[in-house]
Structures are given as C-alpha cells and as structure tokens.
Write a structure and sequence with these properties.
The protein is an alpha+beta fold. It has a single domain, classed as GMP Synthetase, Chain A, domain 3 (2-Layer Sandwich). About 30% of the residues lie in helices and about 15% in strands. The chain contains three helices and three strands; from the N terminus they run H-E-E-H-E-H. The protein has a three-stranded mixed β-sheet, covered by helices on one side. It starts with 5 loop residues before the first helix and ends with a helix.
C-alpha cells in the first residue's frame, strides 16, 4: 500500500486545479475588450497553496477602469466555484502597467491587431 502525505496529494492535484482555475478565468471577459481576462494578460500571478487556497495578482486595462471596485470580487466568486478551492484572494496590482503587448499573438489575430 502506497500512503502519501496530504502535501504530496495536494501537489499532485495542483496541475489539475491550475488548469481548472485557468478555465474559470477564461470565462470572465473584460467589459471593454471582447477577450477573457486570462488571454488578455490581466492575470499576473496565480498561486495555489494546499488545501486549495488561491491567490491571484491581477491588473486592469487602466487604473481608472470603471469595474476596478467590482471586478476582483467577480474573479473571487468565479474561482470559488471551482472544485478543490477553499479560499480565494485577489489583489489588484498596477506594476507593470498592462499594455497590448501582453496579449498573446493568437488573441491579437482574433482581434485583428496583427
């Protein structure tokens, strides 16, 4: 019988949980640009600590964005729906400033920016 420590089990589940979190982030769209916040490059950090504590560092397209006060809560609520998540904390960061260069090429193609 192979008995693993809880930390070992959590570490094995981390890649699957990360994929599920990214999938959830891809369901949240920027209100001004028709692209999800993950592919738009607004997610700067995604940390997972056992048992399912999630820390997100994210930015917005501009500091004066009209959803600045509500968007972190939207992200927290969506990620809490992911199985295996016990806690979510979202921090807005402004450094480095977001720019169009953070958008991957395949998304720029979809938007007609290339």
């Amino acid at each position: 019988m192979n008995i693993q420590s809880p930390d070992a089990v959590a570490n094995e589940q981390t890649p699957q949980l990360r994929e599920a979190l990214i999938a959830a982030l891809r369901t949240i769209y920027d209100p001004e640009i028709p692209v999800n916040i993950y592919d738009l490059g607004l997610i700067y950090a995604l940390e997972i600590d056992p048992p399912g504590r999630i820390a997100i560092g994210m930015t917005l397209t501009a500091p004066g964005c009209p959803v600045a006060e509500t968007f972190p809560g939207t992200v927290e609520d969506r990620l809490r729906e992911v199985p295996g998540v016990s806690e979510v904390h979202v921090t807005l960061v402004w450094e480095p400033p977001w720019s169009m260069e953070l958008i991957p090429e395949h998304v720029k193609l979809q938007l007609g920016l290339l």
